[in-house]
Write a structure and sequence with these properties.
Helix content is 26%, strand content 41%. By secondary structure, it is of the alpha+beta class. It has one domain: SH3 type barrels. It has a five-stranded antiparallel sheet with strand order 3-2-1-4-5, with helices on one face. It is elongated. The model has no long low-confidence stretch (mean pLDDT 93).
Length: 78
């Protein structure tokens, strides 16, 4: 299963966005988002190093709530 990870854009330099999620920072390629206006503060879904979709803060929060629940269930069964 592949997951897209919601991350918040911290800064943009050309086709590279410096993003953060849960204290983890990554440089993310924006090449697939050429038609979108991506600025600091936006949330994007990141898959294998590429931003693939711009999402709302509420959608990002919901996704992380689901991921946290999945991780909690996994640790309960380990």
């Amino acid at each position: 299963m592949c997951l897209g990870i919601p991350m918040q854009v911290q800064s943009v330099d050309g086709f590279v966005a410096h993003c953060e999620a849960k204290g983890i920072e990554r440089d993310v390629n924006l090449f697939m988002m050429q038609g979108e206006d991506i600025v600091a503060g936006d949330f994007v879904v990141v898959h294998v190093g590429y931003a693939i979709q711009k999402i709302s803060p509420a959608d990002a929060r919901t996704a992380w709530e689901i991921y946290d629940q999945m991780l909690a269930l996994e640790s309960d069964h380990a």
